[in-house]
Amino acid sequence: MKTALKQTGAPEESDQPVAQTKDKVWFGGYLLFLIALGGLYYLVSLRFLGLSEGAVVWVLRLSRGAFILTLILGVAKASDVYLIGRIEDPVPRYNLRRIQKLIVALLMAFTAVTMWSNWYTTVVSLGLISLILGFALQTPITSFIGWIYIMVRAPYRVGDRIKIGSATGDVIDVSYLDTTLWEFGGYLSTDHPSGRIIRFPNSSVLNSAIYNYTWPVFPYVWNEIIFNVGYESDLDFVAKTMQEVAEEEVGEAMMERIRVYRELLAQTPVDALEVREHPSVLFRISSNTWLEAIVRYLVHPKEAGRVKTRLIKKLLAKLNAAPDRALFPKGNAR
pTM of this prediction? Predict the structure, then answer.
């Protein structure tokens, strides 16, 4: 599976990210603030500022908590620039930043609470609060579990084209509680963006089938074009013409995709003998008085509409050039 994933596309060359000027400013600010907090803590602990005992305890807690919070933010910033920023694939980079923000928020919240109370008491209190909220917020918690499932099992990623329930679209955001799709198709008759946004709770992935049209190992789907032709047509000519036109449009790219597809199928019990490297033409009896001539080919789902439009134009031009061999419905017989 990993070998096939590497074959689906050549890696893009990119420079390893380095700290930009604004990042260096942030790092410098964090460092200066940490030094200032450390100095304040040291002076107060030695009673150099002449504060009362109650004020000393309060300032020590505050400076210690602020020091830890600043340290958390600094480490998060450094990991974002020097670790996560080095990942070339934008999808895992996006997911890791989501996870990092969640961890940072939890650590900061825990630190802020423990500034004013004993950490053991805080843990017990948080446990009781979590138990109460668990009953009151079952749906959001289930959606959060769905987000963890999406991160671990990756049924889809940002940029994938999916269908879940009646919703179909390109994933543009996966938050902690819901997923946002840029709808395609919808009320339109073609596979084009409708302009509408679909948002559904992440809990849906736990009890719904997910159709992923662009999973990274093999981001292609089968597509077909159907023409009605008469029984008196030269079927060999129609089949040859349709196959030649389709091969001219998608032939070389399709051969490479089929090679990867066969390697994937070889790892399963599925019989791969019927998987052809070239576009295929089939004939089927229609429910009316015509035959259906079908050309089937492999295409990237986000290119399906444009490829189909080009193929229809070329097919019609070739077939209409021989009206005595390719008989189409005419007039009121359409």
Answer: 0.62
Between CA 299 and CA 301 the distance in angstroms is 6
How many structural domains comprise the chain? Answer: 3
Tell me whether residue 127 is in a domain: no
Which residue segment(s) compose the domain that 184 sits in? Answer: 150-212
User: What is the spatial distance between Cα 296 and Cα 275, in angstroms, rounded to a whole number?
Assistant: 12
| 121 domain residue, yes or no | no
Residue 55's SS3 state is helix
In a domain, 26, yes or no: yes
Cβ(276)–Cβ(293) under 8 Å? no
Q: Is residue 191 part of a domain?
A: yes
Query: 317 exposed, middle or buried (CB, 10 Å; 0-12, 13-18, 19+)?
Result: exposed
The total of other beta-carbon atoms located within 10 Å of residue 284's CB is 9
Say how far apart CA 236 and CA 238 lie, in whole Å: 5
Residue type, 280: S
From residue 202, give the alpha-carbon distance in Å to each of 144, 155, 156: 7, 11, 11
Question: Mind listing the pLDDT tens digit for each residue in 262-273?
Answer: 777 777 766 555
Residues 11 and 110 in one domain: yes
